[in-house]
Write a structure and sequence with these properties.
This protein is of the alpha+beta class. It is built from 9 helices and 24 strands. Strands 10, 11, 12, 13, 15 and 18 form a 6-stranded antiparallel β-sheet that branches. Strands 4, 5, 6, 8 and 9 form a 5-stranded antiparallel β-sheet that branches. The longest helix has 18 residues, at 351-368.
């Protein structure tokens, strides 16, 4: 199969304050004693604050005020003055950074931040952000946020920027210009010792993929072998000199000795570069949906393009699709694909763009939600993901006592692409009854037309807990039973 890529224009997506330009980022980590902490990273752009004369040159002085609330209660508060480095003049003033750590219990918080230029009291900016912290010392692999770095070095003295013997200086935007050719990063993974076994071998596998196709970029993959501990840190970097302009994900995975992915984290970034551009759809004469499918000569590829439509198709469409897939007539398959996407776009969006957007989701589904050799779009989770979109909350429960592994997906507002209906606040429950593979079955949903089973909680518990009383809809209480909590408050 041939893959065609198209690049979108670069835009800056970091959080930027209006008066004082402040790039803000954060990470959530935990300690070896399971004490979670919230870490903040600020970069104050030098030429947006006033540098006043000092005995040794010029210096800026800003006030930083933090407030962290849980509901209406203020649980953490801090206010301090932050001084810039000295500058010899006001023509080339430096930017300066600040890092803070706040130890917090698991829960939901609201962060409020105010930055004020002390030299100009009216020059003030504010920011707020919802923060979720959920780290538990249990038989479940968890990862910290990915921290992107400006630089790192061996630590000489312990400080707020020190982790595992290194001083980590944050890089606070997700845009890499031509002058920035190193992508440096740090992440921590927790509980591998309780899931795969203490001192068992595993691999950190990391790579850069294109966000449109999820294709790994040539020469931008790496790995580190480690042994499982309560905390496993990864500090690594890529040379992105030859990475062309485009949109990408940094992907970090942990894989056990059987090559099974235990955890995965992604971080989106944008690149501007003079490196040789990758093939562009439009540069190769692909200007319409007809152009694209006419270039596909492989019948197997055309069949796959039709197959992956079934999650977003109605009953009549699925019948036609199955017939044509059996016949495998290339021209009819092409004609159907063109007509299908033109009808879906309904003159409101470019059908080629709509197809590429959907196919990106298909590739993502195949990578993350497959079942053995079965493609992701044929699985229950993959079908729901493609039909209703990405869930707002996905609660993965892999090791609760007495239950099979299960997942709860919550949608605040969804659009059913197959029936063209809207729904609000609906949930899906998937269970993995075989455990040894990654095949999850849909056992309950609140969406009309989907599987509904008021006894779904009983299906989750082990066979020893099953009861023949059909009036009973929930299992008996047992130690570690969190099914109700996980369903009512998925996160």
């Amino acid at each position: 199969m041939r893959y065609f890529l198209f690049l979108i224009s670069i835009c800056l997506t970091s959080s930027v304050f209006s008066n004082i330009t402040v790039y803000f980022n954060y990470g959530v980590f935990t300690t070896s004693s399971s004490k979670p902490y919230f870490e903040t990273y600020l970069t104050i752009v030098g030429n947006t604050v006033k540098f006043s004369p000092t005995e040794t040159g010029y210096q800026a002085n800003v006030n930083v005020s933090w407030k962290i609330l849980k509901g209406t209660e203020v649980v953490k508060a801090s206010a301090y003055n932050l001084m810039s480095p000295n500058a010899p003049d006001t023509l080339n003033v430096p930017s300066f950074i600040d890092t803070q750590r706040f130890f917090l219990e698991n829960g939901e918080y609201l962060l409020e931040l105010v930055v004020t230029d002390n030299a100009i009291a009216t020059k003030k900016a504010s920011f707020s952000k919802q923060i979720s912290i959920n780290f538990k010392r249990e038989a479940k692999v968890m990862s910290s946020d990915i921290q992107i770095l400006e630089s790192y070095s061996k630590s000489l003295n312990q400080s707020v920027v020190t982790k595992n013997g290194f001083d980590l200086i944050p890089y606070n935007i997700n845009y890499f210009p031509k002058t920035q050719n190193a992508l440096k990063f740090y992440v921590e993974t927790y509980n591998l010792d309780t899931t795969i076994g203490k001192n068992k071998k595993f691999i950190y596998y990391y790579y850069i993929e294109n966000t449109e196709t999820l294709i790994k970029q040539s020469g931008l993959t790496g790995f580190q072998k480690q042994t499982a501990n309560p905390i496993n840190p990864l500090l690594a970097q890529f040379d992105i000199t030859k990475l062309p302009t485009g949109n990408y994900n940094l992907v970090i995975e942990t894989k056990d000795s059987l090559n099974k992915i235990q955890s995965q984290k992604k971080w989106f970034f944008q690149r501007k570069s003079d490196a040789t551009q990758m093939s562009s759809n439009f540069a190769n004469g692909i200007n319409s949906i007809e152009d694209f499918f006419n270039t596909v000569q492989s019948t197997d590829s055309l069949v796959q393009f039709v197959e992956c439509l079934w999650p977003i198709s109605g009953a009549t469409e699925r019948d036609w699709q199955q017939t044509q897939i059996k016949n495998k007539e290339p021209n009819l398959l092409r004609s159907y694909l063109v007509a299908y996407w033109k009808e879906q776009s309904a003159d409101t969006i470019n059908p080629l763009t709509m197809w590429f957007t959907y196919y990106k989701q298909v590739l993502e589904t195949n990578a993350l939600l497959k079942c053995g050799k079965q493609k992701g779009y044929f699985t229950d989770r993959g079908r729901v993901y493609l039909q209703y979109g990405k869930p707002d909350q996905r609660n993965q429960v892999n090791s609760e006592p007495e239950t099979y592994p299960y997942e709860i997906w919550q949608y605040y507002r969804i659009y059913d692409k197959a029936t063209k209906r809207f729904f609000t606040n609906k949930k899906f429950v998937f269970a993995n009854f075989l455990i040894s593979d990654d095949c999850y079955k849909l056992i309950h949903s609140e969406v009309r037309g989907e599987v509904y089973d008021e006894r779904w909680q009983l299906r989750l518990v082990n066979r020893s807990q099953q009861k023949q009383d059909f009036d009973q809809t929930k299992p008996q209480k047992y130690y570690g039973n969190n099914i109700d909590e996980n369903f009512n408050n998925p996160r």
